[in-house]
Amino acid sequence: MLKMFRLLSLTILVCCGGVTALPASVTLKDIRHEYQGPDNCAPVTALTVLGYHGTRVTQSAAAGAMKDYPGDPQVSSLELAAYLGRFGLRSVIRYAGDPAVLRELVSRGLPVVVQQRLEPGSNVAHFRTVYGYSGGTFVLSDPLRGPSLRLSAAQMTELWRFYNGEYLVAYPPAREAEVRAALGDDFNATANWKHARIHAQQDVKARPGDPYAWWGLAKAALRLGDPETAAGQFDRAVNLGVPTIYYLYRQEAFEAWTQAGWYTKMLQITGRALDAFPRSKELQKFRALAQGALED
């Protein structure tokens, strides 16, 4: 009788929230897809996320709001979050994402924006939205590859590591408790950076010649208040071979070098990147900072 009571209690616990298992398969509805115009993955991602939450925008309107000029190839996650915020959504941007956190969020009815490599071998950053999973496969709305791209967990992880597992979840303020529950400690930005640092340390140990692993370690050090260490780690990433296009999407190295006083290095790298992307306002800003500091 006691054994039967314990089994019954465990069944109630599992079913009613104590150790709730995630559904084996989830596909969210009302996921709007549209094929992107040139360099428009962020505007299309915005219309996908906003459409899910009940707001319709056009690709052209989103592009006009987020891009610095027609043809601007770069929109950051922060710029995407700011645009979504105009329509009442809150966003959290976190790192060291993995398949488990994607399943947790999607199972709660929250699509997740991930920043990844466009495809294996490409250096182009690309936004896509995860809105389903089944077993070891994820379903994504991809502005280039279609409304129901399927990637295995291994493919997700491989494409994701170049941007250190970055993900964004946007939600109405009334649903914040659900997001907190899904993310656990990672809802707190500092806790997430500590998690990202541990993850990056493991990556660097496993792949010491991987510049993206060093970049992730450096970014965690910067965000945790250690720009001197971050400056050296970013330099290591650069020396290992970060492609020039990466500076269009990521300016954390310039932040660290500014704080550490590495102005000559900043001028060297921003100059190289601006040769390729002369209209980038971010690169122009950091070059001006470096020039001003060296003149002073």
Coarse structural class:
alpha+beta
Biggest sheet: strands, sense, closure? 7 strands, antiparallel
> What is the gyration radius calculated from CA atoms?
21 Å
CATH fold name of the largest domain, please? Answer: Cathepsin B, Chain A
Q: Could you give the count of β-strands?
A: 7
Shape: globular
Within CATH, the superfamily of the largest domain carries the name Cysteine proteinases
Summed up, the helix count is 14
The residue fraction in helices comes out at: 40-55%
Ranges where pLDDT stays below 50 over 5 or more residues in a row are 1-19
**Measured distance between first and last alpha carbons:** 83 Å
Task: Characterise this structure.
The chain is α+β, with helices and mostly antiparallel strands and 296 residues long. The chain has two domains: 22-187, Alpha-Beta Complex (Cathepsin B, Chain A); 190-295, Alpha Horseshoe (Serine Threonine Protein Phosphatase 5, Tetratricopeptide repeat). The chain has 14 helices and seven strands. It has helices at residues 2-15, 41-52, 59-66, 77-85, 99-107, 153-160, 176-183, 189-206, 211-223, 227-240, 246-249, 252-260, 263-276, 281-295, and strands spanning 25-27, 90-94, 112-117, 125-134, 137-142, 146-152, 167-171. Strands 1, 2, 3, 4, 5, 6 and 7 form a seven-stranded antiparallel β-sheet that branches. The longest helix has 18 residues, at 189-206. It is globular and about 55 Å long.
